[in-house]
């Protein structure tokens, strides 16, 4: 009985598919796959739990074997060896059983920083929370979420009712049998970021710990949309965000919207019918509470509806962050030309944005940035460049014109140069983030090339952006001319500097 029962538990513990030496053979289905939905097997939920029953059967079999050996005088000498093996089995030695999840050495230092301050793991989610509990053994901070075998709506009440956590919870990893509305009712960005961060901090939560190996692009986009923060630490494994210091660095100079409110970031988008603007602002004086903004096209060719930026209903403090989405419906007919975009807040002087709306003679519309009009080699022209920041990431949009079909496989370089001209960061990529090779460009084709470059960790100072194209096989840069004048080193310098400052 014990032998056959042990074999049954062993087969069931193996799971749904055959696995050998780390390789899963999906085509070979095991018996557990046939009965996993039948009660009481379904109540066990995971095949690994059959290992407990396997141990019971094995223990009885071992006991029977020891009893038999005791009765066989010539084999009794094996009993001390068996006892030694059992002792070795209980030896508390760190034997390598599996590869540990990737982690940052910084977590040891993080463990010493306000150990009682709570941490939110990013990305959130029921299944991933089990794995992320491992990191709590490294940093020791109390953590939001975790793993519960038996839970109710009350278990997740804090997450579902806390505005920031509710919005960050992924819709594709909700606990089983829970109502999706508990976590997906609100997804629009929180306008009053500063008050929302303070509310979360008042509950004992101080940090967001982002695990980059498990953060999908959609997770990061959701986090960035809700919390346009800059980490206090970042490496290839983890990024740490501090609610009490949401932006320890600025990667561009703040611009006054009013005497009381500064503009930190502005991201412009375009649809078929409207121009959109996402802006991030910082309150410098409480007199700015109640300020509203409008988005202007050209000389008031079109004006968006006024929208409150600093909502008086929230509890504001000096230094708080606020974000706002503005939409400017476009007239059905616009004459060909360039229409600058501007922001007007509080009725004071308009703040001119870097972008303009360009309407060509066919009526096609597009956003353009700083005119460059550079000739690269004999086949390609760079018409304009616009760039913007989201947190510590530099985003660029370049408009190329293929005057003839390029024959070379070319790569784009973007260099960040310090005040001495030394290279501090760089991007080397096939245009369109590896998606539109130059050998596929057709004569007369216009290409919008959107790229991004991480600048976190760049020391405070003033930097210049330089870019160009080079042959992917030889590394030789294409010659550049602007207005008929050759540009040294085939490198186009953008006029506006990038200024990185540390926030006091």
Shape: elongated
Mean pLDDT: 92
Question: Total number of helical segments?
Answer: 13
Structural class: alpha+beta
Fraction of residues in H or I helices: 10-25%
Low-confidence sequence ranges: none
* Count of strand segments: 28
Proportion of residues in extended strands: 25-35%
- Our count of domains comes out at 4
Q: What is the terminal separation in angstroms?
A: 73 Å
- Largest sheet entry: 6 strands, antiparallel
- CA gyration radius, whole angstroms: 30 Å
Q: Describe it for me?
A:
- It is a single chain.
- This protein has 4 domains: 88 residues, no CATH class; 141 residues, no CATH class; 111 residues, Immunoglobulin-like; 133 residues, abc- transporter (atp binding component) like domain (Coagulation Factor XIII, Chain A, domain 1), CATH 2.70.50.
- The protein contains 13 helices and 28 strands.
- Helices cover 22% and strands 34% of the residues.
- By secondary structure, the protein is α+β, with helices and mostly antiparallel strands.
- The model has no long low-confidence stretch (mean pLDDT 92).
- Strands 7, 21, 22, 24, 27 and 28 form a 6-stranded antiparallel sheet that branches. Strands 11, 12, 13, 15, 16 and 17 form a 6-stranded antiparallel sheet that branches. A 6-stranded antiparallel sheet has the order 23-20-19-18-25-26.
- Helix 1 runs antiparallel to helix 4.
Which descriptors would you attach to this protein?
504 residues, alpha+beta, Immunoglobulin-like, 6-stranded antiparallel sheet, 13 helices, 28 strands
SSE layout:
Blueprint: H1 2-13, E1 17-20, E2 23-29, H2 32-35, H3 41-44, H4 50-71, H5 78-89, H6 106-110, E3 118-122, H7 126-139, H8 157-161, H9 163-168, H10 181-184, H11 193-201, E4 205-211, H12 217-226, E5 233-234, E6 238-242, E7 249-250, E8 255-256, E9 261-270, E10 274-283, E11 292-297, E12 302-303, E13 307-308, E14 321-329, E15 337-345, E16 351-359, E17 365-368, E18 370-376, E19 380-390, E20 393-402, E21 410-417, E22 423-429, H13 431-434, E23 446-454, E24 461-471, E25 480-482, E26 485-487, E27 492-493, E28 498-502
Parallel strand pairs: 3-4
Antiparallel strand pairs: 1-2, 4-6, 5-6, 7-28, 8-9, 9-10, 10-14, 11-12, 11-13, 11-15, 15-16, 16-17, 18-19, 18-25, 19-20, 20-23, 21-22, 21-24, 24-27, 24-28, 25-26
């Amino acid at each position: 009985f014990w032998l056959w029962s042990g074999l049954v538990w062993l087969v069931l513990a193996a799971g749904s598919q055959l696995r050998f030496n780390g390789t899963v053979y999906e085509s070979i289905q095991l018996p557990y796959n046939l009965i996993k939905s039948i009660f009481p097997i379904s109540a066990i939920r995971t095949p690994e739990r059959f290992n407990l029953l396997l141990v019971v059967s094995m223990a009885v079999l071992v006991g029977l074997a020891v009893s038999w050996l005791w009765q066989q005088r010539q084999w009794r000498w094996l009993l001390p060896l068996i006892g030694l093996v059992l002792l070795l089995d209980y030896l508390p030695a760190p034997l390598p059983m599996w590869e540990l999840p990737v982690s940052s050495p910084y977590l040891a230092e993080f463990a010493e920083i306000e150990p009682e301050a709570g941490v939110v793991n990013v990305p959130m989610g029921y299944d991933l929370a089990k794995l992320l509990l491992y990191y709590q053994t490294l940093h020791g901070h109390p953590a939001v979420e975790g793993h519960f075998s038996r839970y109710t709506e009350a278990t997740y009440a804090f997450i579902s009712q806390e505005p920031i956590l509710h919005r960050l919870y992924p819709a594709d990893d909700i606990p089983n049998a829970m109502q999706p509305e508990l976590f997906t009712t609100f997804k629009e960005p929180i306008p009053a970021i500063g008050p929302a961060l303070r509310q979360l901090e008042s509950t004992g939560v101080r940090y967001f710990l982002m695990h980059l190996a498990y953060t999908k692009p959609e997770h990061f986009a959701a986090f960035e949309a809700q919390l346009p923060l800059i980490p206090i630490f970042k490496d290839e494994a983890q990024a740490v965000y501090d609610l009490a210091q949401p932006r320890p660095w600025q990667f561009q100079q703040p611009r006054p919207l009013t005497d009381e409110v500064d503009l930190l970031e502005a991201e412009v988008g375009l649809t078929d019918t409207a121009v959109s603007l996402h802006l991030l602002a910082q309150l410098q004086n409480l007199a700015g509470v109640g300020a509203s903004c409008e988005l202007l096209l050209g000389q008031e060719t079109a004006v968006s509806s006024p929208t409150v930026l600093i909502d008086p209903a929230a509890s504001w403090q000096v230094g708080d962050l606020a974000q706002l989405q503005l939409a400017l419906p476009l007239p059905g007919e616009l004459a060909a030309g360039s229409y600058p975009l501007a922001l007007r807040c509080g009725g004071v002087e308009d703040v001119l944005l870097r972008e303009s709306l360009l309407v060509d003679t066919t009526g096609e519309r597009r956003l353009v940035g700083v005119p460059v009009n550079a000739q690269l080699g004999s086949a390609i022209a760079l018409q304009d460049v616009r760039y913007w920041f989201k947190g510590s990431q530099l985003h660029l949009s370049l408009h190329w014109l293929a005057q003839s079909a390029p024959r070379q496989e070319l790569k784009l370089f973007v260099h960040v140069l310090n005040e001495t001209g030394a290279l501090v960061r760089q991007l080397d990529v096939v245009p369109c983030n590896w998606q539109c090779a130059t050998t596929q460009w057709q004569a007369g084709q216009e290409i919008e090339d959107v790229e991004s470059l991480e600048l976190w960790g760049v020391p405070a100072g003033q930097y210049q952006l330089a870019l160009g194209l080079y042959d992917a096989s030889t590394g030789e840069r294409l010659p550049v001319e602007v207005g008929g004048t050759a540009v040294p080193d085939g490198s186009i310098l953008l006029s506006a500097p990038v200024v990185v400052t540390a926030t006091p």
